[in-house]
């Protein structure tokens, strides 16, 4: 047989489109031609494959003209993942391996010059795609555990090209790799028991966890803002299996380890010097950024005003849509970005505006410039804006413990079950369904309209107030929000009072 077709897959964000590696041997001037929109690393596979076949003691057809086509031709191919399918295609086309042995199999892997198989990134999306088609997967042993996370999939791992050839020739068999998924567990190192005082901030944290709301802590240094934010994942419900796979697929594309954080909600805390591309993703070949790595988890931005304003503004659209679209001249990618934003900030550059312990030394213009780094449209998207004041000495030295994360999580889970029965978390509920779920009394609606006009809140802020009020009703076991929930929700929106602007 002089024509062979081997199935493999490319990497296109979180997608893994099928690629057919077509190999044709013909008479003519000896040589090897590779077509199908390969990038540089794929073009270099010609030399890696040639050396791997020769050093493994296999025949490379040096007297024939070899044409390699990676189909579809308009799909960009990158990386060394096509080395193994190209090598197997040459062996099948030259008659060294029977073609029927590769029926129902896909393969990928980079080859060393001596024939060893090297790990490639982004294998989990490939495994999930192969599982959907019902095919098995041949790949490097270093990727076996990652591929096995896909579940019901035949994973055939190998360390060397010769192992694959022996398996396909029925000389020795590669046993399918099995892996029990680690149990999905909750983080145990961060507990709300360790937080003293700050009852309003703890309440806001519970509300944010229950409804999926964004949250801003503002207060002097050392009042526990970071401590509170780091405990949010511990009161969130555990991920479902599908959510855990989605989170793991993003980490796989970024080349991050999967086993150590399997099933846990991400907590990402980028430094304030991070660029827009680092935060939302990008590059010449667009990769996920911090907001996608925080998908189904928490994105914590400490010292919020220290971030570049242009960096913060790029988050506005994904905060609403739950995904990010990255477009470059020759590449477009979409990544999920359904995260909870938790931010912390000082009220002024020195941090002591409104602090009874220490006087503020900032001028009015410095305070205005500092707080003005946050745009109104961004703040409009933060549902809960909470002051975290300095604790009095008696609370700092008190040994009285508050509720544990487990106790708070039980209420959060119960509130979320009510919301899922409604169709979605309150933070993501469509506007029409939100209005129907709230169903305010006529007097409450009139009172709310007066308050909105007095506080000059936008239409988006109005819906944010309704969402928080509905979450408060869910926590209280009420069918719809009343005046008490509306008042508390509005109290979380008064940023001017919170920051004590001068």
UniProtKB/TrEMBL annotation:
Keywords: ATP-binding, Nucleotide-binding. InterPro entries: AAA+_ATPase, CHLI-like, MCM_dom, Mg_chelat-rel, Mg_chelat-rel_C, Mg_chelatse_chII-like_cat_dom, P-loop_NTPase, Ribosomal_Su5_D2-typ_SF. Gene3D superfamilies: 3.30.230.10, P-loop containing nucleotide triphosphate hydrolases. GO terms for molecular function: ATP binding; DNA binding. Coiled coil: none annotated. PANTHER family: COMPETENCE PROTEIN COMM, MAGNESIUM-CHELATASE SUBUNIT CHLI. Belongs to the Mg-chelatase subunits D/I family. ComM subfamily. This is YifB family Mg chelatase-like AAA ATPase.
């Amino acid at each position: 047989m002089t024509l062979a077709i081997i199935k493999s897959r490319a990497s296109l964000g979180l997608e893994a489109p099928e690629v057919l590696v077509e190999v044709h041997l013909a008479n003519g001037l000896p040589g090897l031609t590779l077509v199908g929109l390969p990038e540089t690393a794929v073009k270099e596979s010609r030399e890696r494959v040639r050396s791997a076949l020769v050093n493994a003691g296999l025949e490379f057809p040096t007297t024939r003209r070899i044409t390699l086509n990676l189909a579809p031709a308009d799909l960009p191919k990158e990386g060394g993942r096509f080395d193994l399918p190209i090598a197997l295609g040459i062996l099948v086309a030259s008659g060294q391996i029977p073609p029927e042995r590769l029926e129902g199999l896909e393969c990928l892997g980079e080859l060393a010059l001596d024939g060893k198989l090297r790990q490639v990134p982004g294998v989990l999306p490939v495994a999930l795609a192969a599982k959907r088609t019902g095919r098995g997967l041949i790949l490097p042993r270093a990727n076996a555990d990652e591929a096995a996370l896909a579940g019901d999939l035949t994973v055939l791992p190998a360390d060397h090209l010769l192992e694959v050839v022996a398996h396909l020739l029925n000389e020795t068999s590669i046993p399918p790799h099995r892996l029990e998924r680690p149990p999905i567990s909750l983080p145990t190192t961060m507990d709300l028991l360790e937080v003293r005082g700050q009852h309003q901030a703890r309440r806001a944290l519970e509300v944010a966890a229950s409804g999926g709301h964004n949250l801003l802590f503002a207060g002097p240094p050392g009042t526990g803002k970071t401590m509170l934010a780091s405990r949010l994942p511990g009161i969130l419900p555990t991920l479902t299996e599908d959510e855990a796979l989605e989170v793991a697929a993003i980490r796989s594309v970024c080349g991050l380890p999967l086993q150590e954080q399997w099933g846990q909600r991400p907590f990402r805390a980028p430094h304030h010097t991070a660029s827009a591309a680092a935060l939302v993703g990008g590059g010449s070949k667009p990769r996920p950024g911090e907001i996608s790595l925080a998908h189904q988890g928490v994105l914590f931005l400490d010292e919020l005003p220290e971030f570049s304003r242009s960096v913060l503004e790029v988050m506005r659209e994904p905060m609403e849509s739950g995904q990010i679209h990255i477009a470059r001249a020759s590449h477009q990618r979409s990544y999920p970005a359904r995260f909870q934003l938790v931010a912390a900030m000082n009220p002024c550059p020195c941090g002591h505006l409104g602090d009874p312990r220490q006087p503020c030394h900032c001028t009015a213009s410095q305070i205005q410039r500092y707080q003005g780094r946050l745009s109104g449209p961004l703040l409009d998207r933060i549902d809960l804006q909470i002051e975290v004041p300095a604790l009095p000495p008696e609370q700092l030295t008190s040994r009285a413990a508050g509720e544990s994360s487990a106790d708070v999580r039980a209420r959060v889970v119960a509130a979320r079950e009510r919301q899922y029965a409604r169709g979605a978390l309150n933070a993501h509920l469509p506007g029409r369904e939100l209005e129907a779920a709230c169903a305010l009394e006529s007097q409450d609606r009139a009172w709310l309209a007066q308050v909105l006009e007095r506080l000059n809140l936008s239409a988006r802020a109005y819906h944010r107030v309704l969402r928080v009020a509905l979450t408060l009703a869910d926590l209280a076991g009420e069918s719809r929000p009343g005046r008490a929930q509306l008042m508390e929700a509005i109290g979380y929106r008064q940023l001017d009072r919170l920051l004590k602007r001068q």
